[in-house]
Amino acid sequence: MKAHGDLMLTGKTFVITGCLQGIGKETLKVFAENGANVFACSFKEDEEFESFCRDLAEKNGVRVIPVYFDMMDDESIKKAAMAIQKEKIPVNGLVNIAGMNRDAYFGMITSNDMKMTFQVNVFAQITFSQYISKLIKRNEDGGSILFTSSMTAMDGNEGQTVYGASKAALIGAMKTMAIELGKNKIRVNAIAPGVIYSPMTQKLEQSILDDKIRRMDIPKLGTMTDVANLCMYLMSDYSSHVTGQVIRIDGGVN
């Protein structure tokens, strides 16, 4: 393991959502391994997750603090933000990874599908970002906020009308936030992953995956670590002049 002085995120503290599994959990791991303290957010308490956080903190000499809240509940979101504030640890950035996906063909979309998807993927993330941005503003050097959009927001994908619309809404919010928060030295960006090898894509039929891989300039699935590394770059000082951008990580889908 490298000395902390050689790591990309040494001495910084970040809030990461969606840490219980998948890309969020991998991002938590990569950030801790690179010297960051992390408020690790999840929607439910889980002893295995608590143990994972303790081991990660001990192994890397950082703090990993679990935070639980329900993105369907505005009061729960507020309480989580207050719990983070009460720790009195300077916050350098927020990585919004948590989200939901309720696939349905256009003619089968329900009002409830739309409400739930936009609540989790858009409304809750904007609300949580409002709270955490106030903490980031306290830093003289500012910080960074990152949203997880999707290539579906830009390219479309069969059966994902609502999901794509919600991820496109995040891009619109991000661009205006970048303008408004820039004066506080807060950068705001979004990543747009393509097909990433994760618990979600493992449920897809191999024929579907093979078809998607054939459309890539780099004909292989991306990994969760690929996404986590991009998040790390965008939250680090190496991207200090990058804001208002959507960065695709999709292997060159065409």
Task: Offer a few descriptive terms.
44% helix; 254 residues; disordered N terminus; alpha/beta; seven-stranded parallel sheet; two-stranded parallel sheet; 9 strands; 16% strand; single chain; 8 helices
Report on the architecture of this protein.
With 254 residues, the chain is α/β, with parallel strands linked by helices. The protein has a single domain (4-195, 224-248), classed as Rossmann fold (3-Layer(aba) Sandwich). The protein has eight helices and nine strands. The chain has helices at 22-33, 47-60, 74-86, 111-136, 152-155, 161-181, 206-214, 224-235; strands at 13-16, 37-42, 64-68, 93-96, 143-148, 186-193, 196-197, 222-223, 246-249. α7 links the parallel β7 (196-197) and β8 (222-223).
